[in-house]
Design brief:
- The structure is a homodimer.
- The first copy, chain A, is an alpha/beta fold.
- Chain A has a domain at 6-13 and 68-111 and 234-452: Rossmann fold (3-Layer(aba) Sandwich), CATH 3.40.50.1100.
- Chain A is 42% helix and 17% strand.
- The first copy, chain A, has 18 helices and 16 strands.
- Chain A has helices at residues 43-46, 52-59, 70-79, 88-94, 115-127, 141-152, 163-168, 170-178, 192-200, 208-221, 234-253, 269-285, 301-304, 347-354, 365-379, 385-404, 422-429, 440-447; strands spanning 6-7, 17-19, 65-67, 84-86, 99-104, 132-137, 156-162, 182-186, 225-227, 260-264, 290-296, 306-311, 320-325, 359-363, 409-414, 451-452.
- Chain A has a seven-stranded mixed β-sheet with strand order 1-4-5-15-10-11-14, sandwiched between helices. In chain A, strands 8-7-6-9 form a four-stranded parallel β-sheet, sandwiched between helices. A three-stranded antiparallel β-sheet of chain A has the order 13-12-16.
- In chain A, helix 2 (52-59) crosses helix 11 and helix 5 packs across helix 11.
- At the A-B interface, helix 3, helix 6, helix 8, helix 15 and helix 17 of A face helix 3, helix 6, helix 8, helix 15 and helix 17 of B.
- Chains A, B: Its cofactor is pyridoxal 5'-phosphate.
Chain lengths: 453, 453
């Protein structure tokens, strides 16, 4: 087929295993620590909060391939594979010799990649006798996916949504309600953690860190309730590798292999999801692909953070995780990419950054929306503000190709659409948005005293 | 593949022709009339407002297959085929022996089937030297699609959006603005038609009829500007037959043939799009499929309207069309399915109703949302309020199958998703919505004096 634009796998070719990069890493990630004892956490300890199977997956550094349960495969087959698309119109607009492909996770149920991990997490909870599941959500993509997945497997869902994004994007709360979930703005007065945060700062806009604290607390004190996380942790990223494993087969259909793989970066699951399956060929087969994680300039943990043991949440309820971090007390600016407003990077990615297997790049807010609008007008899909960061990084690389006269193949993950984020686009078009940055002093202040990793 | 859920055509199998049912109809639709002379309109007369090629297609009762231009095919291939999905989870929830399939047009760029006609209409305009295009939009699905298609082919777009839906669903105006279109709420003071309407009723909420009047007026007085319509007319329905032609091949992949085909009904293009390719086998090959058009009980032109020559718009600017109508002055209740708030049915469908080749069914607003929420919770896609009507009709048929112990195969068109319509779902969940109906007297009052067809 001349100029084929779209590559889709036959149902029988959808991957039936997730890829666990921990098995292939020469330097394994440092273990999460019990904050009290500073000893490595066991799977059993983790399973007080998470599903037991997720806790096992979290610490698995041995098994390269993890079976996807048939009940999950059945749900995956319902919407997967997602299309791999060649962005001809964007290439043309950029006048670049680069070949640009994107994996379109925006056509998933609920409009983002999040469903890929929500389904297995709820499935394992159900299998293990859990009745209720709780979580945090930033922009609402994860909360929406979890609300639906909970309904699929017959669980009740309670979601803590970051207060500022709840106000910026009210439609996502409505979506969660449509699926029958209970939604609370965080920080709230419904938990001890929330009360403590509001006591110190009654106008706290919330962050993923505050919402995680509240959800973890709810899971801890509620019988039959487990906590499900939408990113950061290794088992979440594991589930997302279905994206890259599909993309690998689809790039083969297109007769190409990526020189550069790009994704936006909040906690790391959508990045790892598309990147790790390709990175295994860098590790094992001498490939030389470049991996770029696009983070907001206002929340630059990859490019300017420090490597420390830090809490995953604001209140300090989670295990200590070895991560590139801006400090768990860091309050990110109110950028519209709510899913990227998180202080730390997952443990796997943090180790890979140390080992120079990948690198971050930081994108100012205005550049991200500018990229998103160009993408919309050329490719017809309005991207989520988070995904706009990946597009901006892609455009930078494509322009570099034009300047250097190089024909590189670039693959990026379109993690979600932005139809629920239209107020953000409105504000950008009206000239009401701005760039944010943070000072070195603020980073030092927020990270001093953290436990050395 | 056991229990295959999703059927997608290889790119090489995407249809390259549209199907023109007018060529196969035993009783051709009556011609549109010039309102002054009451003489049949010629293609040349129509092309004062519409693209010349669209005007030719409108009156073509001879050619069964119309070539899709290669430039349009190239854009179609970018997102088509859309998936045909077996709704196992919905079947299970209904405990029905029926097999339910839906064609998922919600994954298209801009989230609905509308792009299928927006692309060729803008392409023809561009080919014919037009620089500007204008249109009306109800819920905003058509306006969004046209704004993008205009951008694709380098035209400027001006959209009149029904005022009440603009208020109910502000995000769709934002989408159109993101694509660079000028958006005006209708009725407005920017046209003579709008001024006249507002003079009589300053609080007029707008309707597709008022917005069409304004757009047609703008096209008439602006050099280089053509008008593009999103439904009702025969050439629009022609473009939408890509849906049914794909579905025919996909049902074959599934090893089934539909006993019933269902779509929601506003002007008729999404209905005709999925139904006509199957209806040709009723006409030509002795098939016996039942075709059901699901309209809102508050706007029941198919089930309770009269067959007359009527204007397509409120101000009386369009040709006289032979249609089942509630009268062009009819003000539909403010239901949330904005795309179904239209007084008349297209000329082809009106003839087919007369010839008993299909029938309408009317769905109260509350039943439509109830169906939509069941569909969301089972299939993971929040449907547009318009599409909820098709789902409600499907559920009625599936329940009938259960009661009668019959295993029928039902195919419906999921014309779009409802992510932009969350305020409507909010109001439904909060119990703030109601059913609307109209009295026989109101219908008689609105249709008396119309020209007999």
């Amino acid at each position: 087929m001349k100029n084929q634009k779209k590559f889709i796998l036959e149902e029988s070719r959808i991957p039936t295993h997730w890829y666990n990069i921990q098995a292939d890493m020469k330097n394994k990630p440092l273990p999460p620590l019990n904050p009290e004892t500073k000893q490595p956490m066991t799977a059993e300890e983790l399973s007080r909060v998470f599903a037991a199977e997720c806790s096992r997956q979290e610490l698995d550094t041995q098994n390269r391939w993890i079976d996807i349960p048939e009940e999950v495969m059945e749900k995956y087959r319902y919407y997967r594979s997602t299309p791999l698309v060649r962005a001809y119109a964007l290439e043309k607009a950029l006048d670049t010799p680069a070949h640009i492909y994107f994996k379109n996770e925006s056509v998933n149920p609920l409009g983002s990649h999040k469903i890929n991990s929500a389904l297995p997490q709820c499935y394992y909870c159900k299998q293990e006798g859990t009745t209720n599941v709780t979580t945090e959500t930033g922009a609402g993509q994860w909360g929406a996916a979890l609300s639906y997945a909970a309904k699929v497997f017959g669980l009740e869902a309670a979601v803590y949504q970051v207060k500022i994004t709840m106000q910026q994007k009210p439609y996502r709360s409505s979506i969660m309600r449509t699926f029958g979930a209970a939604v609370t703005g965080s920080p709230s007065m419904s938990t001890r953690a929330g009360k403590n945060i509001l006591t110190l700062d009654p106008t706290h806009p919330g962050s993923l860190g505050t919402a995680i604290s509240e959800a973890v607390e709810l899971a801890t004190i509620t019988p039959g309730c487990k906590y499900a996380l939408g990113s950061v942790l290794s088992h979440v990223t594991l589930h997302q590798t279905i994206i890259g494993l599909e993309a690998e087969k689809q790039m083969e259909m297109a007769g190409e292999y990526p020189d550069i793989v790009i994704a936006c970066f909040g906690g790391g699951s959508n990045f790892g999801g598309i990147a790790f399956p390709f990175m295994r060929h860098n590790i094992n087969d001498g490939r030389n692909t470049e991996f770029i994680a696009a983070e907001p300039a206002s929340c630059p943990k990859l490019t300017r953070g420090v490597f420390r043991y830090d809490f995953g949440d604001e209140a300090g309820y989670t295990p200590l995780l070895p991560m590139f971090t801006l400090g768990h007390g860091f309050k990110p600016a109110n950028i519209h990419a709510g899913g990227l407003r998180y202080h730390g990077a997952g443990t796997i990615v943090s180790q890979l950054i140390k080992d120079k297997m990948m690198h971050g790049t930081d994108i100012p807010q205005l550049e991200s929306f500018d990229a998103g609008i160009l993408f919309a007008r050329t490719e017809g899909i309005i991207p989520a503000p988070e995904s706009c960061h990946a597009i901006a990084a892609t455009i930078r690389e494509a322009k570099k190709c034009r300047e250097e006269g190089k024909r590189k193949t670039i693959l990026f993950n379109l993690s979600g659409h932005g139809l629920i984020d239209m107020p953000s686009y409105d504000r950008y078009i009206d000239g009401d948005l701005q760039n944010y940055t943070i000072s070195d002093e603020e980073i030092i202040r927020n990270t001093e005293g953290l436990y050395k990793a």
